[in-house]
Structures are given as structure tokens and as C-alpha cells.
Specification:
heterodimer; A: alpha+beta; N-terminal domain of TfIIb; 5-stranded antiparallel β-sheet; 5 strands; globular; disordered N terminus; B: alpha/beta; Rossmann fold; 7-stranded mixed β-sheet; 10 helices
């Protein structure tokens, strides 16, 4: 629980962020600690509250996810 | 349109920054100078910038200097980014790990984008400038300092000479740099209004040229060219280059000089209220009258083909 709180993304970041690959919107998955870009099919990790907006660090979304 | 050639290896550059993060403060004097200069320029601009992004913030020196300045009350949220996650670690400001080649900011979402000594490592500077201009709101400000011009000219000369002497050929060991003229043109091409670029030449003196190389490593500024020669720089070539450096670029007290040209560029996202040039032909007075000169025909009229 403490972990997930520390990993929360500041709403001021969410206001300006888009996917760097597709420039589409991002969905914040608080549970998984990821920013999801449906358009690019990528999930960007959040490490210690810092979104990692690098394609090479992103997880490819599974079919139907 | 074909992709621009990839001059830099971005993942190698990221690894260099990761490694430099621990000791960055030991050699951050150029970054501090560039960031301090930018803060001074922002101080005299009397308007508010609600959302600011600092690209390539490294240890966060820009926001530290900003916090102590008269400009702080006019700058709202400051978001720090870096290609290296290690550079961003250990503080609790608003941070994003970002590749300056693929920016993750929405259209017209920012009021101020700054960057001190980071953007000289992007492969496609025009592309990055266009992305920044799009991310800015109308009348938003972009200000960046990069290494340019004659930066490290002494080291470049010595490495090339030592390597061609000992290996019968020399590769590119130091990245090519843009000059102020190039950069002002790029800003204009990227759609910025009122583009300005200027150069601050800094001559740093070192006890030994190896101390310069140590500083470059601490700054994360060592070679990240994509087309590095297969063979790394040998000890013999490095020793010869250091010898040449001492012979040619020493002051009478034995210290060696290293040139850094810090190029600062400024541009605004276009807005109708900004000053505009007049339409051609709309002048109400002759230039010759204003200058008190006698106008002499050059013998050509506009539209006429010179014979």
C-alpha cells in the first residue's frame, strides 16, 4: 500500500502527458503503476513516481488488454 | 521523406549519463553557468509561465537557480526531465524520464520550455524543435543552451593529429557542433517567432589535459557517436594527443586551455500580438532620406534579369 502511494503520479504531470510515439492520450493504471497508450499498444512504467516515457522501456500490451 | 542520418547512439549516451550521475556535481560548473544565464534572461521577461519543462535537467541545477531568483514567482509548475533515470533519482520534484527526440507533451500544454546543455546530443534537432514548438501554447517561450561552435577545438585537433600519426587515419572522436547562425535558422524553420541565438565563449584552464577528459566523463559528455571506430582510442594515441595538447595549448604557467562555446537560442511560439514585420513596399519614407544619403542606382531594377 505504501509502495503504491509512493508510486502515485502527480496530477500535474498527467495533465500535460501524451504518448511520445502516437501522441495519443494515456490512461493511468494506478494498480499496475503504468501509463497505457492504447493507440501505440504500449504501457509505460512508473518508477518511484517518475513516469518512464521511453518506448524501449515500455511493455507491449497483450491482445485484448 | 527519408530519415535523417543517426549521428548519435542514444542508448550509449543514456549509459554515459547514468554513469556520470553519481559524480555530476563535481563537474557541473558549465551547466550551472548556462542555467544561471538562462534564469537571468527569464528574470527580465515580465510575464507568467504557469507550466515549465526543463529538458535534460541532470541534477536539477536549473530549478535550484530558478528557486533563488526573482523569476521564481512568475514560473509555476516546473517539470524536470532527463534521458537518464539515475540523473533524476534522489529528489522529489516533478520528474519525467524522457527522450528529447520523442517528447511526451500534449499540443499547446506548456508555457516555457528550457534546456541547458543537453540538446546537442539529439540526432534530429529540427525535429525536436518542431516538437517543442507544438507543445508550447501560443506566445510560449523556448530557451536552450547547447555546446556549439569551437567547443573542444583543441582536443579535437590533438586527437586527429595523434591518431593519424600513429594509426595512419583518424576517425571522428568529437561530435560536430552547430554554430549560432545554423541554430537561428533552425528555430525559424521550426516555426518559432523572433528567433535569437548568441554565443558565450568559456575558456577553462586545467592542470593537465587528462583533467579535461575526467570532467567530460563526469558531465556525461564523452563520445556517444553512433559511428565510432571499431577500435577504441589506444593508450598510445591518447598519450600522444595529451602531449600535443600540452605543447600547443599551454599558458606560461603550464596550465592548458579548453574552449567551450555555449550557444543560447530563444524563440517564441507564434501569437498574433507579437511584433510583426511590415509588408514589403509599405514603407512611408525612403531609406536614403532617413540616412541623409544620396541614393545611387546599382543599375538593376527588381524583376529585371541582369544582362
Amino acid at each position: 500500500m505504501t509502495q503504491s502511494l509512493q508510486n502515485d503520479v502527480d496530477p500535474r504531470l498527467l495533465e500535460v502527458l501524451v504518448c511520445p510515439i502516437s501522441h495519443g492520450p494515456l490512461d493511468y493504471d494506478r494498480q499496475k503503476g503504468e501509463l497505457i497508450s492504447r493507440k501505440a499498444g504500449l504501457a509505460y512504467p512508473i518508477r518511484g513516481g517518475v513516469p518512464v516515457m521511453l518506448a524501449e522501456e515500455a511493455r507491449t500490451l497483450d491482445e485484448g488488454e | 521523406m527519408s530519415a535523417p542520418p543517426r549521428l548519435f547512439d542514444r542508448s550509449l549516451h543514456r549509459a554515459r549519463l547514468d554513469r556520470a550521475a553519481l559524480d555530476f556535481a563535481a563537474a557541473d560548473f558549465l551547466k550551472a553557468r548556462a542555467a544561471g544565464d538562462m534564469v537571468e534572461r527569464i528574470e527580465i521577461i515580465l510575464r507568467d509561465f504557469p507550466v515549465c519543462v526543463d529538458l535534460g535537467s541532470r541534477s536539477g541545477i536549473f530549478s535550484q537557480i530558478l528557486s533563488a531568483s526573482d523569476a521564481r514567482p512568475r514560473v509555476g509548475t516546473v517539470i524536470e526531465t532527463d534521458l537518464s533515470g539515475t540523473m533524476l533519482a534522489g529528489r522529489d520534484s516533478l520528474r519525467l524520464q524522457v527522450d528529447e527526440e520523442a517528447l511526451p507533451f500534449g499540443v499547446a500544454s506548456l508555457d516555457l520550455v528550457v534546456s541547458s546543455l543537453a540538446l546537442h546530443w539529439v540526432n534530429d534537432l529540427p525535429g525536436t524543435l518542431i516538437q517543442i514548438r507544438r507543445a508550447l501554447r501560443p506566445d510560449g517561450l523556448f530557451m536552450a543552451a547547447i555546446f556549439g561552435g569551437q567547443t573542444l577545438t583543441e582536443l579535437r585537433q590533438c586527437l586527429i593529429e595523434a591518431e593519424s600519426e600513429l594509426s595512419g587515419g583518424a576517425g571522428l572522436r568529437i561530435a560536430p557542433f552547430a554554430d549560432a547562425y545554423d541554430v537561428a535558422g533552425l528555430l525559424q524553420r521550426a516555426g518559432f517567432a523572433l528567433p535569437v541565438a548568441d554565443v558565450d565563449r568559456v575558456t577553462v584552464r586545467y592542470d593537465h589535459p587528462l583533467k579535461l577528459i575526467q570532467d567530460l566523463r563526469r558531465m556525461g559528455e564523452t563520445n556517444a557517436l553512433a559511428d565510432r571506430q571499431g577500435k577504441p582510442l589506444t593508450r598510445a594515441v591518447l598519450a600522444r594527443a595529451m602531449g600535443l595538447y600540452q605543447d600547443r595549448f599551454s599558458d606560461p604557467d603550464g596550465k592548458v586551455r579548453a574552449t567551450f562555446d555555449i550557444l543560447t537560442m530563444t524563440g517564441w511560439a507564434p501569437h498574433p500580438d507579437q511584433q510583426q514585420p511590415l509588408k514589403p513596399g509599405s514603407a512611408k519614407m525612403r531609406l536614403a532620406d532617413a540616412l541623409g544619403a544620396i541614393e545611387q542606382s546599382a543599375g538593376e531594377k527588381p524583376g529585371e534579369e541582369p544582362s
